[in-house]
Recover the amino acids of this structure.
């Protein structure tokens, strides 16, 4: 059973790099939409709740 999990882990690890963003995506603007947002000016912390969508680049 351990070897089955180890094999699955290695397969996932090999394909994990496909999920990485393109180099140019880092420079793209971030678009954020949510049902509700609260911002604490003192701490600079923003909390988004509800149907939250964050998109950047491709």
């Amino acid at each position: 059973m351990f070897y089955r999990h180890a094999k699955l882990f290695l397969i996932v690890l090999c394909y994990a790099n496909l999920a990485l963003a393109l180099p140019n995506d880092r420079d793209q603007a971030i678009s954020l939409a949510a049902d509700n947002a609260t911002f604490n000016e003192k701490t600079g912390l923003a909390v988004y709740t509800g149907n939250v969508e964050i998109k950047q680049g491709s």
